[in-house]
Amino acid sequence: MAIAMALVEELRAGLRGRSRVYLPGEEGYREGVRRWSEYSEKNAGAVVAPNSIPDVAAIVVFCATHSIELAVRGGGHSTGGSSSTEGGIVLDLSLLRGVTVDPAAKTVTVQGGALWADVDSVTAAHGLATVGGTVNHTGVGGLTLGGGWGWLTPRYGMVIDNLLSATVVLADGSVCKASETENPDLFWAIRGAGQNFGVVVEFVFRVYEQGDVWAGLVVFPVEQLAAVVEFANSINGIKDAAINFGFSAPPPQKSPILLTAPFYNGPEEKAKEIFAPLIALGPIINTTATIPYATVNGLLNHAVPHGARKTSKGSSFTMPVSPSFVQSVLDHFSAFIARVPDANETLVIFECIDPTKIIEVPQSATAFANRGQYMNAATMTRWLSPDDDLTCRQHTREFGSLLREERKRKEGDSVDKGGVGQYANYSETFASAKEIYGENYERLVELKKRFDPENVFCKWHPIVPPVEA
Fold it and tell me: Residue 416: pLDDT above 80?
């Protein structure tokens, strides 16, 4: 649906500087609606790329005033369409990608449109790093507001646990700081449910001294699955050691292979000692080496590239994980790609990253409700034809069910205690707000009423403000 030209001209007149408005057919529009997942792309009425905070506020007010759906695009990795809109306005933050380090204060200030690659490269120039994700072409904003964890989580906790403050544009166009001392209720809410409360145009994170690490990709035939899983179990709890493992079926063979990504935040000699049993299994590919930390977050980029149709589902598992269970997940994956051959580059991954630092923070300390003694697993389902949409969505749901049933088998009634057991950033399409926010949901509903009563921000695990009697 097109936006009336009179409204477009009103919008343009209200913007300053180098901010841009792109309409369908204009240069810049197609890039503005392109997403990491083609499945999530929609035809916006306009794409607006502001280059200042006042212009971000003007766009928000414009959409609220004219009841135009607003979608905010940071890195564009949403698989549920929360950064896209059919006929509405995309607020594209790609002109706001500045990153500034204060080495003395040990902080990094990051604009809302930055990618993790921007942060990693700038902080590395000072011998510093902060907790980011495991893929560096993702946006800082989306990962952070949904919780965020990665390779440095075992030392420093989640991304939101290292967020010191944020600058937020609210639904009424006002701009405010949020921290433990300024607007603490808003600061609580944006750490886990942030997309429901405003546009975060600036983050300030704590940074740490960071040297080189030992990491790489190690690939095995699937016949080594049981041995790899047992190895992952054996290093659980070893300080500064982590491993992700999973499977895909990339070209040219397009048959399943076993992928692992070992990581050690320390000297190579110690890393080789810890991971020697894994390397002794005889991988078909081994790229492990001592490398800069900034390089690590790009190691998995090739496994989750831009393009094609994608959806995702996250769940959780506890250690030790059963090799026979992981084999059943592999069998499910193999049957799926036999039915949908062009889904061969689907990635199933188990992230064996120690949650100890995560659960040191109480469940109610932030809106993020997924703090528990368990780890993340996810499927990033990838396919080509729209004809296979329903089949691929069903596979994605079934993966989540497999993980859920395994935890129930191991833990019984206690499976529902602690965290909600699914990571919001991996489960955008297949979980309700109540399921994602758990015990924090009711407080979020009340804060939504206060900060966004007209539900301007309603695209990501939407929290609906209560209706007045």
Answer: no
